């Protein structure tokens, strides 16, 4: 009998994930799996754990990166350079459905924890290798951090002002790799459901971010000219930019066609003649006369308060937005109206966190579990793989487990 919609469990209920992970790319991928119901066992170093724990103390004394990427996981601290610690991971993997790692290139293979080795030993296992540049090629052994990959993938070249390229303000390469690892796991689990076999999944940060470079990449490859950096403006559409308002705010607007331009000119700029003037009537003309076009829009919006400017733009059917700071996003009225905020437990008490963006109406709510302390679940997990009190005590005494 098929359960009713409101009885459906989370889609990854019953799936166990073991992750030897650090920083952002693998932890963010496995956090998505945890939110959807998977049990995620996070293997950390005994000497400080995932180094993202030490990035900052901004989240009530915890690192903001770590809080963001690691809720809902169980933490076990092991020394994988010690055969006894590595043996524990192998026991955990033997009972897992998914294994994820993003160690430095070659480190997992030296430990026998690369996807190919594990999948050969466990045919139903889905094993994910996340790397900076992939397992082969001249960059395979190159150290890869988010900003470096943003540069190699060309993202920095199209972000910023005409005078100054800038990196994205979020770890875009890490996030891109995480989301492809997440979707790769889901695809491999579906395939396992039909074939009975898991298999390796490989994701590189460079290849993930290069895919996200699709529009400027294809523009350059097939048009011959890389898009110019234009700040908040659009390289080939005008007006499409941020404009200052009378009360110190900034409003972004986007005119997508000439009909919208005419409405903007009539209903917001109070200059209906500009709607049909040859120097503004088409997008090509507005781009060619971008400075004059922007001056017209800036003068009109600069005389209005932010709320009034947005109301007039909305009334004219012009796509628009308020330029918000990060603190304002935390108070965004749309997120509040849709009740997207929850609290998750952490070693320092409850902290606010957003619901995951995958919404499954009518089913079980996402599992937004606690952010673990380092080694919080070590003893329970060691017992779960069959270790005795004496064995556990010896591991702790010898610094193999913490």
Main sheet strand line-up: 3-2-1-4-5-6
Low-confidence stretches: none
Order of helices and strands: EHEHEHEHHEHHEHHEEHHHHEHHEEHH
Radius of gyration: 26 Å
Enumerate how many helices there are, as a single number: 17
Describe this structure in words.
- This protein is an alpha/beta fold and 402 residues long.
- The chain contains 17 helices and 11 strands.
- Strands 3-2-1-4-5-6 form a 6-stranded parallel β-sheet, with helices on both faces. It has a 3-stranded antiparallel β-sheet with strand order 7-8-9, covered by helices on one side. It has a two-stranded antiparallel sheet with strand order 10-11.
- The longest helix has 24 residues, at 172-195.
Features:
402 residues; alpha/beta; 11 strands
Task: Provide a compact summary of the structure.
It is built from 17 helices and eleven strands.
């Amino acid at each position: 009998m098929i359960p009713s919609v409101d009885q459906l469990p989370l889609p990854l209920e019953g799936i166990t994930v073991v992750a030897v992970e650090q920083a952002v790319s693998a932890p963010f991928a496995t956090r998505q799996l945890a939110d959807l119901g998977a049990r995620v066992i996070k293997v950390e170093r005994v000497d400080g754990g995932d180094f993202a724990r030490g990035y900052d103390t901004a989240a009530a004394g915890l690192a903001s990166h770590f809080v963001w990427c690691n809720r809902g996981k169980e933490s076990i601290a092991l020394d994988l350079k010690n055969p006894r610690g590595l043996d524990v991971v192998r026991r955990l993997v033997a009972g897992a459905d998914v294994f994820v790692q993003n160690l430095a290139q070659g480190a997992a293979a030296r430990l026998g924890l690369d996807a190919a080795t594990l999948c050969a030993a466990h045919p139903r296992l889905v094993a994910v290798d996340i790397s900076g540049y992939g397992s082969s090629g001249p960059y395979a052994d190159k150290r890869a951090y988010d900003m470096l990959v943003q540069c190699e993938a060309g993202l920095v070249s199209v972000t910023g002002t005409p005078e100054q390229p800038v990196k994205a303000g979020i770890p875009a390469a890490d996030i891109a790799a995480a989301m492809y690892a997440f979707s790769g796991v889901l695809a491999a689990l579906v395939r396992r459901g039909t074939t009975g076999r898991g298999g390796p999944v490989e994701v590189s940060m460079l290849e993930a971010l290069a895919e996200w470079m699709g529009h400027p990449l294809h523009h350059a490859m097939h048009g011959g000219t890389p898009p110019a950096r234009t700040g908040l403006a659009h390289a080939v559409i005008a007006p499409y930019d941020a404009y200052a308002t009378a009360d110190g705010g900034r409003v972004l607007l986007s005119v997508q066609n000439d009909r919208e331009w005419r409405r903007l000119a009539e209903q917001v700029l109070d200059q209906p003649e500009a709607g049909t003037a040859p120097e503004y009537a088409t997008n090509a003309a507005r781009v060619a006369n971008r400075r004059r076009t922007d001056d017209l829009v800036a003068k009109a919006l600069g005389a209005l308060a932010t709320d009034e400017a947005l109301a007039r733009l909305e009334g004219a059917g012009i796509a628009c937005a308020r330029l918000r700071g990060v603190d304002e996003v935390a108070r965004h009225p749309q997120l509040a109206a849709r009740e997207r905020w929850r609290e998750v437990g952490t070693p320092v008490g409850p902290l606010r966190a957003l619901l995951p963006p995958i919404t499954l109406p009518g089913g079980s709510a996402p599992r937004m579990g606690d952010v673990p302390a380092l080694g919080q679940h070590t003893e329970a997990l060691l017992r779960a793989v069959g270790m005795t009190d004496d064995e556990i005590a010896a591991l702790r005494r010898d610094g193999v487990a913490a």
